[in-house]
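User: I'm preparing a small set of examples for a lab meeting where we compare how different chains pack in three dimensions. I only have the primary sequence for this one, and I'd like the structure in token form so I can line it up with the others. Please keep the answer compact; I'll paste it straight into my notes.
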Amino acid sequence: MIRFSHVTVNYGYVPGALKDINLQLHKGDFTLLLGPTGSGKSTLLRLIYMDILPSAGAVSVEDRWSSARISPRQINLLRRNIGVVFQDFRLIENMSVFDNVALPLVIEGYRSKYIRQVARALLDEVNMLQAADQPASTLSLGEKQRVAIARAMAKNPIIVIADEPTGNLDREASQNVLSLLERFNRNGTSILMATHDYELIKDTPYRRIYMENGELRQPDRTMNVGKERIFKTSTEE
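Assistant: Understood. Below is the structure token output for the 237-residue chain.
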């Protein structure tokens, strides 16, 4: 579904934010992107929804969009098919919970009846329907992230990209967020989640991709990511 072919990203005069990345992500997978802060995880995610473009190489999504030849109009179309969940939620604080989830559909011009049905169903799915009329500013951090996940799902995306979605949350809220992403994945949505919360995901069976210093790394018995030593397992082949 998503292919990185010899992708390098340089920021200004700083070479090697990403270095010769070759990677394929498959439809329907739940994939974990692991590595310490500054390893290049967020840069890799931004390349998928083409917030930035490679300095060399190409990123393609579903063989419909390629960074090598994409236009601004096509980037907008691509982003309609991708949901993004950020560590800092990026909700509009003075808008209601319902309006935050509905906003992507309003922007696309869907009819109000459809918008209401979809937004309410998603809020119910993330157990936030009871807060639909509350301003987003009144929510706890965990509640905000659940609303952000509902918003990311509003346009029925082909993939949800979650960039450190539990970074600001306590353990219970983090587990709730992971459980929600797992539920949507079981229903067919591809998930790519960047994290350095190794305790949260250590027992999960999902494919793991490790990054260090802008490069993909195979885990081994001498590699340390953050504070936890990474050991290779059969799920990482």
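A couple of notes for your slides: The mean pLDDT is 90. DSSP finds seven helices and twelve strands in the chain.

User: Perfect, thanks.
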